[in-house]
Amino acid sequence: MPLCNNKVADDGTSAQPLQEGKALVDSLIKVVACYRHLASCVGGCTDNSSLRRDLQQTRERAQTLALSCRNHLTARLRDKTLAEAERKETELLWVAFSSCLELLHADMCKVFTMVKHFSLANNSAMVQTGIQGGTTEVAARALSLPDLQGAGDGSQTSSMEGQEQSQLEQEIAQVDRTLEDMELKVNVLRWSVEALGPQYADPVSTDSASLALLSIDEEAAQGFCRRSQMFAVMMLCGVAIFAMVLSVCVVFLV
Amino acid sequence: MQDPKSGVKSQTQRLVITTIPHAITGEDIVAWIVNRFKIDATEARAMGTMMVAFGYIYPLQDHKRLILKPDTSLYRFQTPYFWPAQQWPVEDTDYAIYLAKRNIRKKGMLELYEQEQYNSLYKWMNHKWDFIVMQAKEQYRAGKERKKPDRVVFDCQERAYWVVHRPPVRNIWTEYRPYGQFKPRVKSSVSIGAIVKYATTYKEHDPLLHSCLPSNPWLTDDLVLIKHLIKVECWTFSFGELLMDPRGRADFRLFLKKEFSGENLAFWEACEDLKWGAAETMKEKAQQIYKTFLARGAPRWINIDGKTMDITVKGLAHPHCYVLDAAQTHIYMLMKKDSYGRYLKSPVFKETQRKAIAPEPHRFTRRPSLSPIILRQQEEEQKAKLAASGPVDITQLCRFTAPVPHLAVYTGICEAQSTASPGLMTLPNSAACPSPISVAIDSTPASERRFDGNGGPSSSHFPSIAEASVSEEENQTPALKSRMTLSLSRLLRRGCNGPSVFASLSPKCAVVSGGGKVQPLGVEPLAQPQPRRIANFFQIKVDIPPECRIYPIDSEDEEDDSPNAARGGVKEIICPWETVTKKDGAG
């Protein structure tokens, strides 16, 4: 279900579809991001049937989203009565949508190839990549579900794997067709689209913990810390001296 | 490699509070490779480095240098998603997303080269930028869902992937610089400024930047030593320009003579000669210069300050080619500051400017310049003419001694012959100019005459080359030297065809000295009307013996009917790549 910003008061018909389209594209982007995280685990030591299942489910979700997104955007762009500003925004969304779909397509192809090489049946061939935890949370995020239903069946038989592979193949082909259709149906000149957002994304949150872990190898900017420390120390000293002077004066006067 | 028993020993990487498994040390990797493939340590190390360089294993410390260090530094296997094996295209979009993600994590964490790339990607992928930023955010958020160690591992993996595929530019240089010396670096703004200055100053004068003057060295071989106005203008740009141009230097010398300060320039030139001249005479030259210019009471004493004189004199105790550098620079500066300015204002220079002509642009014709061979022939001619100014030798008889101009070399054809011999195919690409071959061929009448006079071979009939050569071999044992020219003529006379000529030529070359029998390959009676092209081709490259003259075409009609031209076989053929005098049988 797409995350819609449902406004209580309906302020005009044009805002709603735009928001809807934006929400659709946002969720698609989210799902594709999660899919990429999942895909990076394929072939690694955490590769198991649940991962594959997660992949599949995420994929399906992405595809449904993509379909609805496409329909929505195509309808809007074909609408001749659309205002200029809105058309621009819709075009932006369109470009984002097509890039997202391309990313998904690339990831799906990669997963397809990897799955061929790293069969679940042969567990020892998995690369020890150092990943320990599972990716269920990521999948949950993708599917917008609070938690997933159970672990599913323990091991997959090879026939199931084969089935999955063929299914994946079909899905890839479908995404391919979607992309082609998009190019044909709607004529959006990519180079005429200008991004509205900033060049640098704002930091989402200061995740100091993982930062610290990574920056052990990297050289941190030490100088700045030292400078600030020095400054604080000097301030303290200044305050202490001031206090001493005051007390001396008080003693003197008294 | 991962086998717990026989693979590389796996360790855990300890970061601040977490431990991440599956780390392997460099030395373990090397040891394992040595064991597995039974190779020695250096090769194993190289192999390991390749693995790292490709991205199958990535280092955990010092992640930018993709080499395998055979010590306790840690490595880890890369996840198959990031393997290069499948050769998935490395997308710039992904790279942009990655950089944006890193920037989200901590602002300003991007390195300089990454920053630059980020900016350029922003420029040309601008239409996708919203998507990229959003995707980066989403990926970051999705990553937060994972456990902390996994997050770190994933970040390391991605970072390693991008180090492989978008290598940091500067680091590679520092890594592979063999001597570890850093060349002094010039800011590009400075160097570009210099280029711009040069281009604006020399816009009209540089033969490359501007349309050519008649003596553009890039385009023609001939040197036209006229003082062009443009060249003269060049002298005003800098003192160096003036000195580099030989005409300029001569002019300057003239001026200095008038001013009675010619010794400066003479000293400068002597120093240049010392620097760039022959090394064996260097010591003597240095001494000579000292005696002439520097010693007290020297005939052409130059005025340099005491300190420089001291340095120079000390250096002259152990002379090397740069010993006079300090003095030379001093004198150069003196001339530049003092004489150069006066020269530019002097009547000498003004006269030169007045006399200098404005050149016309070069009108290219299709004629090439004289080839070195022709030039050499002309020189030899001149020498011979000077030498043999005595009785006219029949060999010297040359009705047309003027060298034929505009000879095209290596055309390999003889258009002259084609008219003479019926049935000969008209050869393609007969240039408008008479080929030197024809000219060279025309020289044979003289030699022919000579050898006819000397009672050359008796054969007056021209059988086909094949038969002729066969018969010739059996019959004759001629003297070697006369053979050369004789064979030349024979070669030309024959209506020889390509293949058999080739065939016959090569083995025959081998017996140039022997005079033995040579079996021509592929002997078959060949039709006469074959192009003489090949023969002429071979002919051309031969160093024509000095006696032969270069005749123009007219004398060709003296040649006999050449259709049956194979008068006698040719025993020794002069291979074109051999000089006439070479007698060894190098084919």
From TrEMBL, chain A:
Example GO BP: negative regulation of signal transduction
Residues that span the membrane, as ranges: 231-253
Keyword entries, A-Z: Membrane, Signal transduction inhibitor, Transmembrane, Transmembrane helix
Xref: InterPro entries: RGS7BP/RGS9BP
Family, as annotated: Belongs to the RGS7BP/RGS9BP family.
PANTHER family to which the protein is assigned, alphabetical: R-SEVEN BINDING PROTEIN (R7BP) HOMOLOG (PTHR21029)
Identification of the protein by name: Regulator of G protein signaling 9 binding protein
Species for this entry: Cyprinus carpio carpio
TrEMBL record, chain B:
Protein name: Regulator of G-protein signaling 9
Membrane topology, record value: Peripheral membrane protein
Membrane-spanning ranges: none
Subcellular location: Membrane
Region (Disordered): 446-481
Domain RGS stretches: 238-353
One GO biological process term: G protein-coupled receptor signaling pathway
InterPro entries, per the entry: DEP_dom (IPR000591), G-protein_gamma-like_dom (IPR015898), GGL_sf (IPR036284), RGS (IPR016137), RGS6/7/9/11 (IPR047016), RGS6/7/9/11_DHEX_sf (IPR047017), RGS9_RGS (IPR047077), RGS_DHEX (IPR040759)
Residue ranges constituting the DEP domain according to the UniProt record: 4-79
Keyword Membrane: yes
Secreted among keywords: no
An example Gene Ontology CC term for this record: cytoplasm
Gene Ontology terms for molecular function: GTPase activator activity
Native organism taxonomy: Eukaryota, Metazoa, Chordata, Craniata, Vertebrata
PROSITE patterns, sorted: DEP, RGS
Domain of life: Eukaryota
UniProt keywords, alphabetically: Membrane, Sensory transduction, Signal transduction inhibitor, Vision
